[in-house]
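Lecture notes, unit on protein representations.

Consider one protein chain, 383 amino acids long.
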Amino acid sequence: MADFFYILFGLFWYALLILLPGGTFAIILHFLLSLPMQRRDRALFFLDLLETATDRGQNVEKAILSAAEGHDPAMGFRFHLLAAYIENGARLGEALEKVPDFLPPQVNAILRASEKLGDTRNVLPACREVLRAPPDTVRTTVQYMIAILMLFAPIGGFMIWELSVFVIPRFREVAAGASVKLWPLTLFVFGHTNWLIAFEAAIFLTLLTSAAIYVGGPGFVRFFRSRGFPVVDWISWRLPWKQKRLQRTFSAMLAVLLDGGVPEAEAVRLAGDCTANEICRNRTARIVAALQQGNKLDEAVRLLDDSGEFHWRLTNAAHANGGFLNALRGWHEALDAKAFQEQETTAHVLTSGLVILNGVVVGLIATAMFGVLVAILNGQINL
């Protein structure tokens, strides 16, 4: 009977100290990693709301207020804040400008531009192009990198610090007392443990930044944006998959505007604004200047796509039936596919590389410590 109570007591403490913290960590991690998809679902619901209102000929502001009356928490507090601004007399574009974190920057810019044009219905396909979900493999890989490596990096750094403070000094004392010559690798590791700790800390900070960007989304990145010094926009343009998505956003919005009869120069300018990226805006300004100098649109867009593929895609779209958006749909799907492939490849390479680097650090420390023992044994054998 006493053994049974000891078993129950052990299970109780196991659940309290191991399962409860682990389960809490898993719940918090799941909640954080699901935030990007929750933001996307809310944005898609908002687009469905706008589409339903425009199909019925209903005022979109009134439709938003009607939806907000239900106080559905699934839409998030920003939706109700948007509705509050509209209730106080703001138009949809003005309310979106005051609540910039409710929708992704590109969707926000597209809807604000559509209000100026007086045609919200026709820009909704371009908004859905922006919100297209990545494949499950891409999301799984990114989440694996954030969850697993963020757990291992601080643990690895802490263990190296413990070894450098409590274990390595003792090994040095033993080696000094035995008057043996240590391996060069052992001397290198013992003399550079601070660098190994700094390396693990750098990995952790890098992963922490990546996790903050992934979880925080556009609202987090917006704090680091600056029109005068657009470092964030420059980085986004230099990342291959980000560049392709920006090109897709520009192309989709340009197609919608051209189908709506907007003049080419104005359509290019508005499409550039809808990317919410300063590098794209600068390039589209050069496209507008080229159009004003008499160049054709399909030639001028070469300034946005160095590969030249957008040039011939737009040339063919100009001669196709069914409008620019339908003609360029294959181009947009190709950009999405390439972007997802590049993002998945990068995530796999980074994940594998960081795991290998952590393994190399652990191997160096283990080899250095065993090197002390081997040197002592060799010294005793020589004696």
